[in-house]
Amino acid sequence: MLPGVLASKVGGGTVSVVRLNGIIASASGPVPRSVINLQAVESALVRAFEAENAVAVALVINSPGGSPTQSQLVADRIRGLAAEHELPVLAFCEDVAASGGYWLACAADEIFACPTSLVGSIGVVSGGFGLTGLIERFGIERRLHTAGANKARLDPFQPEKPEDVEWLLGMQGELHELFIEWVRSRREGLDESADLFTGEVWTGRRALELGLIDGIGSPHEILSQRYPDAEPVGVEPRKPLLARLGVGVLGGVPGLGASSLDPAAAVVGALEFLEQRAHWSRFGL
Question: Comparing C-alpha atoms, which of 231, 277, 196, 177 is closest to residue 54?
């Protein structure tokens, strides 16, 4: 817990509860997927902090991480709203608050988790596929024209170059340092003798010992203790216009969303599913 955390307001009121669930990625369309980014969650955050008689804001986090930039944008927005409205922020880790998910948790004044939650993964990862053998097998000719020697780094259809890998590792190292700086700025009492910044992930119980969280407990348990007279109220983001109208992204069929009869929609859905599964599977989920 940070020093000087805002004192809890007493008596009645409500606790705004905002769920941050899914991978952290930039917005991809007018109808929301199960992703976290500033565009998707800002309306919920603003409504949570501006709620009448709010005494605190609780963030329920279940995320394996994703985009460093979106993680920072959402976290900065949380801190800005907390300072503006002088409300304490409590984060609750569910199945996993790892990598960017832990970045978001650190935006809170206090962090709680279940003993079985997976917490941490303070590191940077990127991945892709090498498809040079695949296109040769099917007789596909790759045509790529660039202006700038470094414009096509790590192209999956070309052999991997050592200099490109070196560049990527340097970029990851810089992002890692920014992640570490953020955690250290938000968390006191870290066990610096442990390898906290290797990308390792820990159970909630171990995370408490290492100083990565402040306590063990569920939202219901902790909020009923801290704010016994306050009512927890879930706050949802405002749905985009197309989602409210029930109009499909590709098919344009009211009430059906992206029609299962649309081959393009099926491909997009399959790719999104695989992308999300890859993030979650790193934590056995």
Answer: 231
DSSP string, 143-155: ----SSTTTTTT-
Contact 15, 53 (CB under 8 A): no
Tell me the backbone φ, ψ of residue 105, rounded to 5 degrees. -60, -35
pLDDT digits (tens, 9 = 90+) for 89-126: 999 999 999 999 999 999 999 999 999 999 998 887 76
CB contact set of 204 (below 8 Å; sequence gap of 6+): 93, 113, 114, 115, 116, 117, 118, 119, 213, 216
* CA–CA gap between residue 258 and residue 265 (Å, rounded): 6
For the chain, the domains span: 14-126+179-238, 246-285
The CA distances from residue 137 to 133, 144, 161, in Å, are 6, 19, 21
CA–CA separation, 187 vs 221, rounded Å?
A: 23
In order, the DSSP letters of 248-285 are -SSS-BTTTBS-TT-HHHHHHHHHHHHHHHHHHHTTT-
140-159 per-position pLDDT tens digit: 666 666 766 666 666 666 66
Structure tokens at 107: 């935006």
Cα–Cα dist 244/278, whole Å = 30
Residue 85 burial (CB count, 10 A): 15
Q: Thinking of the domain 14-126+179-238, which architecture would CATH place it in?
A: Alpha-Beta Complex (3.90)
Q: How far apart are CA 148 and CA 226, in angstroms?
A: 58
Alpha helices in the chain (DSSP H): 38-50, 68-85, 100-105, 132-137, 162-186, 204-210, 219-226, 241-245, 263-281
Of 56, 130, 138, 62, the residue nearest 99 (C-alpha)? 62
Q: Cβ distance 82 to 110 under 8 Å?
A: no
